[in-house]
Design goal:
The structure holds 3 protein chains of 3 kinds.
Chain A: E1 5-11, E2 14-20, H1 26-33, E3 52-55, E4 58-61, E5 74-76, H2 78-81, H3 89-96, H4 106-119, H5 125-131, H6 143-163
Parallel strand pairs in A: 1-5
Antiparallel strand pairs in A: 1-2, 3-4, 3-5
Helix pairs in contact in A: 3-6
Chain B: E1 7-9, H1 14-24, E2 28-31, H2 37-42, E3 50-53, E4 63-65, E5 69-73, H3 78-83, H4 85-90, H5 92-98, H6 104-109, H7 112-117, H8 125-131, E6 135-140, E7 143-148, H9 149-152, E8 153-155, E9 158-159, E10 166-173, E11 178-184, E12 194-203, E13 206-215, E14 222-223, H10 225-231, H11 238-251, H12 262-283
Parallel strand pairs in B: 1-3, 2-3
Antiparallel strand pairs in B: 4-5, 5-10, 6-7, 6-10, 8-9, 11-12, 12-13, 13-14
Chain C: H1 2-6, H2 8-15, H3 27-31, E1 47-53, E2 59-65, H4 67-70, E3 75-79, H5 81-84, E4 91-93, E5 99-101, E6 107-108, E7 114-120, H6 123-132, E8 134-139, H7 146-149, E9 176-183, H8 185-193, E10 197-208, E11 217-223, E12 228-233, H9 238-249, E13 256-259, H10 275-287, E14 291-294, H11 297-303, E15 306-318, E16 324-336, E17 363-372, E18 378-380, H12 388-406, H13 410-417, E19 426-427, E20 433-434, H14 439-449, H15 452-467, E21 473-483, E22 495-496, E23 499-500, E24 503-509, E25 515-519, H16 528-540, E26 547-551, H17 568-595, E27 602-605, E28 608-611, E29 614-620, H18 621-630, E30 641-646, E31 655-665, E32 671-681, H19 688-707, E33 739-742, H20 760-777, H21 791-800
Parallel strand pairs in C: 1-14, 12-13, 15-18, 16-17, 25-26, 32-33
Antiparallel strand pairs in C: 1-7, 2-6, 2-8, 3-7, 4-5, 9-17, 10-15, 11-12, 11-14, 15-16, 19-20, 21-31, 22-23, 24-25, 24-30, 27-28, 28-29, 31-32
Helix pairs in contact in C: 12-20, 16-17, 17-18, 19-20
The chains are: A alpha+beta, B alpha+beta, C alpha+beta.
Subunit structure (chain C): Dimer of heterotrimers. Each heterotrimer consists of a large, a medium and a small subunit.
Enzyme class (chain C): oxidoreductase
GO molecular function, one term (chain C): carbon-monoxide oxygenase activity
């Protein structure tokens, strides 16, 4: 066992300080140390995207990042995207358009989709497919995921227009 | 999957990095995006007792476009390459290739330096850099040196980089003419079955220069001088294309894996190369 | 009052019952990251267990030294077979009547086999401990080919008496498991011998894996004070797991509580019992602390249940006009090192005898030989009812091959051989009685929807263009028409480990007119909490939104056999309707009492009982519910509850017609799915939105299997496809949009006429994708090529047909 490190993360707006071995992957910090169990482990080799979180504005697979690397950074998980009182349009749209089944990929999927809509508020179907290709879903065949993201994009754009 | 324990370092400058490398030799590895190294550590196929995180070392994340060359810091990510509009203007092949690497999350983390320095035959950037005749800047205890991309790769995971050196930047002469990066893969996130990088120039006599390299068809990237030469002076007609493909096929040495047997890979290499040349030529 | 009587449509809509695309109640928690999967469970003092696994596919174990591992800080115990033997737990029974090593007992039979179980305070220490367990192996000859296995002198299963019969009768060879037959051998052979036309083909349905996004795992917690064991896990059949754990551990069943929390997809992978479950239970008993075991992805792909691995040889005979006269099928089934298939006891090859498909084939014979090899055990039904995917693939390929033999259009060949509507219920040659169907209507609708004739004309033009050198892309039109057999099943012929395959529902109506219903099944993404409430809403007249559905806790749910083989709607869905009808029967009596009329003078109307002929006189179900708890009604017990255990009289037989249009790059082997049309008939449709979602998902899994997904071994028995780099799970980029359509032919014996749908798209999809690839090459002489049709194998087909320079 190597020396433990002092690590500070800001997770969903809350500062978290702890001591951890350098080999502690961010996904384990989130899930086991901080009880933030929305992000999941699906493949362990950075293919499936179930562990996707946002770190300093970038979509990242938290199974392939040591918490030590994230020291000092801001992390958003599905729990920080929206809750019962402030649902994100993507969260409503996934329910409305049946964009999920077993739900295991959903937190990573929505977290990535939220970032995708920041990168490109008006994506075409092909752009959504390409932009979501780091997230694997075994249940839905993606068709309703695409539909959900399109619907959320439309809603967010309409809200933005109304506000302007 | 849990990696073995290691000591973690996050030096603030290059001197700090080199000091750790000097102390621990091949027991130390530098970490950029980590998307090649960390999975290997998790599978316990790479043992790294001393891990040096490069993120706090300044000056490695810039893209500088000069009058003759582009300089790309080692910590520039694939997504940085994709998002840089000025770069896309002067060297569009970089964007075209980067978009074909892995997936959005991995491109946010994966760096140019990691991709070229790792020596993984499956990585896309090494072949691309050979096509572009890039130079790699290495820094070590004895200072800085430059190594041509075309001289850098010795075998799978074996490169001209010494254990105590760090790759800090890639410089590329401003590419000229038409370009194409063509890649066949089984799915997003896969390495290439075959990939080709082509830069090609045209004058009134036809093809005036051509540079061609391919990926994942040998234990190193393959820059084929003969393939480029086969196009120069031609109108890039069928005969020239055939000659270029034949030259390349002579230079590659693929092995069988889950993507298919050798005969298939050679055939597809020819098809992909031909398509890359045709597309590059149409843009020249 | 009049409004309330007249607004019947509104009242129906308010229930969100059958036929409504009700949004899923599960989604709130999943979209907010608040699902509760097994790896989310965290208990005080919880330990972690993980396996030392064999790097060899066949080896004798000379010694195991755990001393160094025990020195790792945090490692508390290392279990080996020697530790489990005194408890009689070093082997466990499989669902197929065989037994399987829990931890390697003297030898290993497949790569990745469990050798020792390291128990530690955290995952990190467990992982470090594994590295330090020293196992000395002596390599043995490896057999990865079942045909070679049946000829080999190498005995894989030294624990079995080579001459003794197995669970399914006599064995022909020490590496042989069973022979299973259906139909009439001699008459079939005779018809084929004298037939005008015979097509013969051998095909290999490759080994693949269900690979749900969540791997398998569990948390075992032995409460030594109270003598109670709680086991949370990824169980598709929690009640059966409880019984198995009781039988093998000796803990009385009432002292075991099995809980399936949210499950991140199953697809058959989570039906069986795995060594990890047994070791976690033992470790919890030994340490007195909760123990968690979670597979990583490599463990999952290499060791937990695979699917398929069927070598099938068929002969199909017909008249010159194309009327099929007989079908003969032989299967050599590779079951790996142990026979751990998940099939009903009497069906060691599952329902492979549905392989006459949707066709009126008068004579047929099927013979299946199960064989041991040095591969992982399993043989589960990956998104299908028991071996139905194999059966449908077989017949849908045989039809195509026969069409080639007859030089006939494959769509027309299907049409002239379909079982006719008026023939239902139809008794098939291999024994099953199909409940209902209208195949011609479905087929015609499908072919019209895609403009089949237009597609064939386009394809002919493409072939001409290809031959003229104008294109290097071929066009394939994939057809499939499938009939499934799902909803296992009638207790008279379906059991697993002696447990009849009924299912159950228990309903409690609360005083204020809401309800909870508990079932013996368990959702893994199918949306049971949404759809079962819809069935009930229509049956009992309370809004689906007022009904909670609960599954997966064996302490509270009635006994049932779980969710796989599309059995939830056909069996538990029927139990739900039947329990609802019991509620309604009592409600009728309460209503009659309240309305002061005779029981027979009231009738059910959507959400109430009304006095016949006087619609203004009624009691709503909400009112009746309250009355059940508040009135002393002569002759009636208080309360409003019911339970139903439903033993289905027959299986259900969903069917469908699929068409795929694909372009194929002859030079790279890259396929491009241009169009996919899927018509499904699953009988009564409970929730069209969920049906459509199931179809999209099943088709995508079919695409994966047909076009690249495989568990491949090298000659040494090493798994070559152990990570998601090589094991093909398509991303959004590789998947097309699907067009869905339907007809409705209710099941005559199911209480609401529903048949089940979750697996149809996979069963029908695999042959459809495969047929599209094969059809593209038909004009150039292709007859059959094996899946998976990945780039290089498609390229090889083109190459062998001389389509490259």
């Amino acid at each position: 066992m190597s020396k433990k490190m002092h690590i500070t993360l800001t997770v969903n707006g809350k500062e978290e300080e702890f001591l951890a071995e350098p080999r502690e992957l961010l996904i384990y910090t989130l899930r086991e140390r901080l009880n933030i169990t929305g992000p999941h482990i699906g493949c362990d080799t950075s293919h499936c995207g179930a562990c996707t979180v946002t770190i300093n504005g970038k979509s990242v697979k938290s199974c392939t990042l040591f918490s030590a690397q994230a020291n000092g950074k801001e992390i958003t998980t599905i729990e920080g995207i929206g809750g019962p009182d402030d649902l994100h349009p993507l969260q409503s749209a996934f329910k409305e358009h049946h964009g999920l089944q077993c739900g295991f990929c959903t937190p990573g999927m929505i977290t990535r989709a939220a970032k995708l809509l920041q990168e490109n508020p008006n994506p075409t179907e092909a752009e959504i497919r390409f932009g979501m290709a780091g997230n694997i879903c075994r249940c839905t065949g993606y068709q309703n995921i695409i539909k959900s993201i399109q619907a959320a994009a439309a809603e967010m754009n309409a809200a933005k227009e109304a506000a302007e | 999957m849990i990696p073995a324990s290691f000591e973690y370092y996050r030096p603030k400058d290059m001197a700090g990095v080199i000091a750790i490398l000097q102390e621990h030799g091949d027991e130390a590895r530098v970490l950029a995006g980590g998307h090649s190294l960390i999975p290997m550590m998790k599978l316990r196929m790479a043992e790294v007792p001393h891990l040096i995180d490069m993120q706090d070392v300044g000056g490695l994340s810039d893209i500088e476009i000069g009058p003759d060359r582009v300089r790309i810091g080692a910590m520039v990510t694939q997504s940085d390459l994709i998002d840089d509009a000025a770069l896309a203007k002067v060297a569009p092949i970089l964007r075209e290739a980067a978009l074909q690497i892995a997936d959005p999350q991995v491109r946010y983390m994966g760096t140019v330096g990691g991709n070229v320095a790792n020596g993984d035959p499956g990585n896309d950037m090494p072949g691309l850099m050979q096509c572009l005749d890039a130079t790699f800047v290495l820094i070590g205890p004895d200072g800085e040196r430059a190594v041509a991309a075309r001289d850098f790769y010795e075998a799978a995971y074996m490169t001209a980089r010494e254990d105590e050196e760090v790759l800090t930047a890639v410089t590329i002469p401003l590419p000229k003419g038409g370009y194409a990066y063509e890649k066949q893969k089984r799915k997003i996130g896969d390495y290439a079955t075959a990939a080709a990088a082509v830069q090609i120039s045209k004058d009134q006599n036809g093809c005036s220069a051509a540079s061609i390299a391919m990926t994942n068809l040998s234990d190193t990237p393959i820059f084929s001088e003969a393939a480029g030469a086969a196009l120069v002076g031609t109108s890039v007609d069928d005969a020239a294309l055939k000659a270029a493909v034949a030259a390349m096929l002579n230079d590659i040495d693929p092995t069988e894996d889950n993507r298919g047997p050798i005969a298939f890979k050679k055939y597809v290499a020819g098809v992909i190369l031909r398509r890359a040349i045709e597309r590059a030529w149409s843009r020249a | 009052m009049k409004d309330e009587i007249d607004n019947r449509d509104e009242r129906v809509a308010n229930l969100k019952g059958l036929g409504c695309s009700r949004k899923r109640v599960e989604d709130a928690r999943f979209t907010q990251g608040k699902g509760n999967y097994v790896d989310d469970i965290k208990l005080d003092g919880m330990l972690f267990g993980d396996f030392v696994r064999s790097p060899y596919a066949h080896a004798r174990i000379k010694s195991i030294d755990t001393a160094a591992a025990m020195e790792v800080p945090g490692v508390l115990a290392v279990l080996t077979a020697a530790d489990l033997e005194p408890l009689g737990l070093h082997w466990m029974p499989t669902l197929a009547g065989d037994k399987q090593m829990v931890l390697a007992d003297g030898k290993v039979l497949f790569q990745g086999q469990e050798v020792a179980f390291v128990v530690a305070e955290d995952r990190f220490a467990a992982a470090d401990g594994i590295e330090l367990v020293e196992v000395e192996y002596e390599e043995l000859p490896v057999i990865v080919d079942p045909f070679e296995s049946l000829k080999s002198d190498v005995v894989l299963r030294e624990d079995l008496d080579p001459k003794a019969p197995g669970a399914h009768g006599p064995r022909k060879h020490p590496n042989h498991i069973f022979t299973w037959e259906a139909g009439d051998k001699a008459p079939t052979e005779e018809v084929i011998a004298n037939a005008e036309v015979v097509a013969t083909e051998s095909m290999y349905y490759h080994r693949t894996h269900p690979c749900p996004l969540e791997t398998c795992g569990c948390v075992a917690s032995m409460d030594k004070v109270n003598g109670k064991l709680t086991l949370w896990g990824t169980f598709q059949a929690p009640h059966a797991i409880r019984t198995v754990v009781s039988l093998i551990s000796g803990i009385e069943e009432h002292n075991i509580r099995v809980i399936s929390p949210d499950i991140g997809g199953g697809f058959g992978n989570k039906v069986g019992a795995y060594p990890g479950y047994v070791c976690s239970v033992v470790a919890s008993i030994v340490t007195g602390k909760p123990v968690k075991w979670i597979e990583d992805r490599m463990d999952n792909l290499m060791t937990t249940a695979f699917a398929r691995d069927y070598h099938m040889t068929g002969k199909i005979s017909a008249t010159k006009e194309g009327k099929i006269t007989a079908l003969h099928c032989h299967v050599t089934a590779d079951h790996g090192g142990f026979d751990a298939c998940a099939d009903p006891t009497k069906f060691p090859a599952g329902f492979m005898n549905i392989c006459t498909g949707s066709y009126d084939i008068p004579t047929a014979y099927l013979e299946v030989d199960g064989v041991y090899t040095n591969k992982a055990p399993g043989g589960v039904s990956y998104r299908c009812s028991f071996r139905v995917t194999e059966a449908v693939y077989f017949i849908e390929r045989m039809i195509e091959v026969l069409a080639i033999e007859l030089n006939m259009d494959a769509a027309e060949l299907r049409r002239i051989n379909f079982i006719k509507k008026e023939q239902f219920p139809y008794k098939a040659a291999l024994g099953w009685e199909y409940d209902s169907g209208d195949y011609h209507t479905a087929w015609d609708k499908a072919l019209k929807a895609v403009d089949y004739d237009g597609l064939r004309a386009e394809q002919a033009q493409r072939v001409a263009d290809f031959k003229a050198g104008k294109t290097r892309k071929l066009m394939g039109i994939g057809l499939s028409f499938f009939t499934e057999i799902v909803g296992a099943g009638p207790v008279k012929n379906c059991d697993i480990l002696g447990l009849g395959m009924f299912d159950s529902c228990e309903i409690r109506i609360h005083p204020t007119g809401s309800a909870i219903a508990r079932l013996g099944t368990i959702s893994q993404g199918q949306g049971h909490a949404t759809t079962f409430a819809q069935i009930l809403a229509s049956e009992i007249g309370l809004p689906a939104d007022s009904i909670t559905i609960e599954e997966g806790d064996t302490d509270t749910a009635p006994y049932g056999l779980g969710t796989y083989g599309s059995r939830s709607t056909p069996v538990a869905g029927a139990a739900t309707a039947m329990a609802g009808r019991k509620i309604r029967a009592k409600a009728q009596m309460i209503a009659a009492y309240l309305l002061e009329v005779h029981d027979n003078d009231v009738e059910f109307d959507v959400d109430r009982f009304v006095v016949k002929g006087a619609p203004e006189r009624f009691k709503t179900m909400k009112e009746i519910a309250f009355a059940a708890y508040n009135q002393a009604i002569p002759g009636l017990e208080p309360g409003l509850e019911a339970v139903s255990y439903y033993d289905p009289p027959n299986m259900t037989y969903p069917f469908g017609a699929y068409v795929c249009v694909m372009d194929i790059d002859v030079d790279t082997g890259v396929p491009d799915i241009r169009r996919f049309y899927a018509l499904d008939d699953c009988g009564t449709r409970i929730n069209p939105m969920i049906i459509e979602g199931q179809i999209h998902g099943g088709l995508t899994e079919a695409l994966a299997v047909a076009l690249g997904q495989e568990i491949a071994y090298d000659d040494m028995g090493n798994v070559k496809t152990g990570t998601l780099m090589d094991f093909f799970l398509p991303t959004a980029w590789e998947v097309p949009n699907y067009e869905t359509d339907f007809t409705v032919t209710p099941s005559p014996h199911h209480p609401i006429g529903a048949k089940g749908v979750g697996e149809s798209p996979h069963v029908g999809g695999v042959p459809c994708f495969s047929n599209a690839v094969q059809d593209a090459f038909r004009p150039f002489g292709n007859r059959h090529t094996n899946m998976p049709h990945d780039h290089w194998r498609i390229w090889r087909t083109a190459n062998e047909l001389g389509l490259h320079d």
